[in-house]
Design goal:
By secondary structure, the chain is an alpha/beta fold. It has 15 helices and 9 strands. A 5-stranded parallel sheet has the order 2-3-6-1-7. A hairpin with an 8-residue loop joins strand 4 and strand 5. The N terminus is likely disordered.
């Protein structure tokens, strides 16, 4: 019970940081719908906190005692998604050497969160609809139907109504998912939340960056308020952690922020994508670039603090030694170089 309460405190509605009227309304709605089994569709741009809302609904529900099963439909190859969702029997296809339990079955008596459901192939949507309507399905290669008790929450960063109109998404599946609709506003529409979120992220990450920035200068805050945050709350968190790592004192200054947040060369940041496929590719590349940069800064700062000692660094940052070594190899960082640097 104590563990459940601790998890609830991490992912419950209290962790949705906002004073914006729309977000307060959403938090109230989370409390209202959590107790039912109604399907929920969460809409919003990438980085707005769709999974956080899904976790809050799950953990505040009677099903909160079992893990939330999460499937990112856009991250799994199309040919593998059916097996991921519904499982398969041994010998069902080439390479199926053993039975696989799918996500619907794993989520029995709990909640299944289907992220980026708008990327689901049209041919798979029929089977998904049947599973949601009747709470029963058949594994690939199976002969018997399996009954499950599952609460479904779906999320998308696409306009599913438009996808229905253009024939990319089944209308019957859309209406089956859209029982309770939650639309998350982008961060640029709730800028009054930015100072609150920055304070939250500083508190969240202060143990990772011991002795580093715990406040933000007026100029840095102004720049962060003026920036449009295309990556939303996720981008703000990454930016805050990066600035904390780079800060030369206990305060984040304007120079500690990325050039785009400072306003440098804003017109030249990215070319305009021509179609949805190019948009998806460019968003993936942008996220990858920010994540790589953040990992490198984090890694170098941690190694510097521990003078290149990998075991001490792993202990300091709370990582397994193997995980740390994988990160070092990924970014081709030479740990020995930090042994020569004097301790502060």
């Amino acid at each position: 019970r104590q563990l459940k309460e601790e998890i609830k405190s991490l992912y419950g509605t209290d962790t949705i940081i906002s004073k914006h009227p729309k977000m307060i309304e959403i938090m109230e709605m989370v409390g209202q719908v959590s107790g039912s089994k109604a399907t929920v569709l969460i809409e919003g741009e990438s980085g707005t906190g769709k999974e956080l809302v899904a976790r809050a609904i799950h953990l505040n529900s009677p099903r909160g005692g079992v893990p939330l099963v999460v499937v990112n439909c856009s991250a799994i190859p199309r040919e593998l998604l059916e097996s991921e969702l519904f499982g398969h029997e041994k010998g069902a296809f080439t390479g199926a050497e053993r039975r696989k339990i799918g996500s619907f079955e794993m989520a029995h008596q709990g909640t299944l969160f289907l992220d980026e459901i708008g990327e689901t192939p049209k041919e798979l949507q029929v089977k998904m609809l049947r599973a949601i309507e009747g709470y029963r399905f058949m594994r690939i290669g199976g002969t018997e139907e399996i009954d499950v008790d599952v609460r479904l929450i779906a999320a998308t960063n696409r306009d599913l109504k438009t996808a229905v109109e253009t024939g990319q998404f089944r209308e019957d599946l859309f209406y089956r998912l859209n029982v309770v609709n939650i639309k998350l506003p982008p961060l640029r529409e709730r800028k009054e939340d930015i100072p609150l979120l920055i304070s939250h992220f500083i508190e969240k990450h202060k143990k990772e960056v011991k002795g580093k920035a715990l406040e933000v200068s007026e100029r840095a805050l102004k720049a962060m308020l003026n920036y449009s945050w295309p990556g939303n709350v996720r981008e703000l968190e990454n930016c805050t952690l990066r600035a904390m790592l780079l800060a030369r004192s206990n305060r984040i200054e304007l120079d500690d922020l990325p050039p785009e947040v400072r306003g440098e060369g804003r017109e030249l940041v990215h070319p305009v994508p021509r179609d949805s496929h190019e948009l998806k590719r460019m968003k993936w590349e942008a996220r990858r670039k920010v994540e790589d940069e953040l990992e490198q800064v984090f890694l170098k700062e941690a190694l510097k603090r521990n003078r290149g000692n990998i075991s001490k660094t792993a202990l300091d940052v709370g990582m397994d030694r193997r995980q740390l070594q994988n990160l070092i190899r990924k970014h081709r960082v030479v740990a020995k170089e930090f042994k020569r640097q004097p301790e502060k």
